[in-house]
Amino acid sequence: MDGRFEEAEELRRQLRQAKRDRQEAEERAERAERHIEQEKVQRQKAREEAKEAKRVAEKERTQRQDAEPDIVGNRNACQEHLYDKFSAETNKALTSKGGLTDPAHKWCPTKLLPWSDFLDLQKTVLGEIYAAFGDERTFPAAKEVPAVAKVVRRRVANEADVLLVQYIAVQHPVSVIIEEVAARPSIKAELGISSRVVFENQITAISELADGADGRRDGEIAEDGQGSEDKDNEDDDEKNNEAMAPKIGPSCARARPDQVAVYWPDLKDPDNLEGRAIAFVVEYKAPHKLTVAHLRLGLREMDIRTEVVVPITSNPEHFQYDSERLVAAAVTQTYHYMIENGLEYSYLSTGEAFVFLKIDWSNPGNLFFHLAEPRAEVAAHGANGRHCTAVSQVLAFALLALRTGQKSQTIRNNATRDLKTWAVDYDLMIQTIAEEREGKSVTPSVYTPSPKTYTNVDRSPYVFLKNGRAALPKTCRPGADNCGRKRTPDGDDDDVTTDGSTNGPTIGTQTPVRSHGHGRGQKSGTAPARSSHGPPARSQSSPYCTQQCLLGLVCGFPLDSRCPNAAFHRRHGSSDSRHHPVDHKTWQRRLEEQLDQSLDDGIKPLWKQGARGVLFRVTLLEYGYTFVAKGTTPEAVEYLRREAKMYGRLRTLQGSGIPVFLGAVDLKWPYRYDIGVRLVHMLFLSWGGESILDRKEALGLDQAALDRQLLPLVQNMHRLGVIHMDVRGPNILWCEETGKIMLVDFERAITVASRRRNPHPLRAQAVQRFMQEDLGYAQIVLRT
């Protein structure tokens, strides 16, 4: 009995315990649910608070950005929304193939040296532009920049991708700022620049000719109706033009930079080429071919020829040596363009990094470099990172370059006398590197230094005073925390860094920045170094000689007293005022001697050009004869020689229907006219006037009167055995002196051997067809 009672009691106790356990479990579950719900509410609240904080922060950031001068806000937005979106393609199957570049037969720098005062110059230029604009809001709103960000989010796989991204994220914003500068005379004067800047890929039509002549064969209509040379009709004077072509150094054919920064003085007429000049060139390299690792390691002080082109070390460290070879090849190509075009500044970019370059023209074998990595620099410099953006650095560089003109032809030619070329086949070098490294594990991170951020340099711009007050934007003015400046006891801003050292220029009146110690120099044994700004005043302003003056010079006739330069001719000639001071043969010799001595004095580009030639105003300085020259490249010399022959055939029309032909010469030194364009041959003519298309309306000429002049002129040419083959508006000039039409450009003309009594039927048909085409064009060209 007792046993059963105890057992029942134990069961009741277990039931009570189970009930308590169940209740406690339920309570714990309820508490857990309440806790979970509380945590959920708290997380939701945190998310809402974070969202609100982000909204407030974005609003404050936008307000700060809108409060900043757009010159600051715009650059920051370009960096954040455009440049920072840049990314290189890492999938080898999607990247471009082939060599990085081919430095073969390019001018090679002797020494590669660090550009030690680059950042100092950069801070000065940025300080000047801040001072010039102050708080003016003249640039596109920064908030508009993200609209184009999606364009640059593609991965960069080749040089074309780099060009696209750089144009959108860097070059266009820089162009906008500089155009605003150029549109304001006061600011333009303060910053020491003269015009806007544009980034072009192709500058002149004749640049295409440097890639090879068009292969068209012109000449006499032969018996079978095809073109051939009329060897029997060459005059003795024309044979004198068959001199050997000049030695012009390394070939420029098919060698031109990816972009050219050109400044144009005429803001209203972009088609006006007069005064156009090149400020600097830009080369792009795909980031998978020339990596930041290569740049950080390969850019160092070195003698390129002894350490890279012809290395002394027999077994160099692989990755180090590879980097040096790749970097040297890249900068050599840019350096070549700088030498050819007389440029002090240029840069190359992989998109991720920029290599800013400068030539010391007092010792042109020295090439100075500065490596910039904007993304890393912006992150490393905190509030001052805004001055390290890609737009800021390229803007400062562009303004620096715009203050320097292209060096003269004489200075460039003198520089090339002592320079050597790189004759290595770069594609073979790339292949050799790949073969040598095949199967070997090379980790760039083991060898590569950290990003170049220059954290030891205060990147805030120098402060300039304008109208007696600090003129920097509010965010960079004296006393601002992000300026990294100290104030002197008298309240003036001094260039004192946070560590107490002083660097940079004295604060005060803005003056154009110039680097020290890199002026022009002259080597012994070279031609006199002429001014890089062009010939003396007389050669720039002398009016053209008259047709009769130059015709008299060629034919031995008396001096034309109506020539505006007649007094100058007499003053430097004999006492006989009725005759020319020299005969034509002596005149030609003196002109050739002048051109041998200098391609700067007495010669000025007219920025008028065709497919095969460009025009110059030329003055024979000794006697004051002023006329035009038509220069051309090696690929088109044969066409100008043919044109000279046509003038010989048309001798009786010279001075009335066509210009007077004065001779031709092969230049001793090439005239470096444009990127990749070397002029080696010049043909000299009297000035024929402006295009009839430009003068027709102003002159109020009657159409019938024009027809009465042009059609007989073309017919007379045909009777003299020349078919023009290019009768069109640009080749028809109006000569103010004679009041008549003149026809020019005979480089496509063909000759007719009229002395043959029994021409082949095919030849006769061809002659008639071409003559009819000439007359047909002559009838319609002035009506279009």
Automatic annotation (TrEMBL):
Biased composition (Acidic residues): 221-239
Domain Protein kinase span(s) in chain numbering: 601-784
PROSITE patterns in UniProt: PROTEIN_KINASE_DOM
InterPro entries: Kinase-like_dom_sf, Meiotic_Drive_Suppr_Kinase, Prot_kinase_dom
GO terms of molecular function: ATP binding; protein kinase activity
Gene3D superfamilies linked: Transferase(Phosphotransferase) domain 1
Domain of life: Eukaryota
Biased composition (Basic and acidic residues): 1-67
Location of the region described as Disordered in the Swiss-Prot/TrEMBL record: 1-69, 214-250, 475-542
Descriptive protein name: Protein kinase domain-containing protein
Species this protein is from: Parachaetomium inaequale
Lineage, highest ranks first: Eukaryota, Fungi, Dikarya, Ascomycota, Pezizomycotina
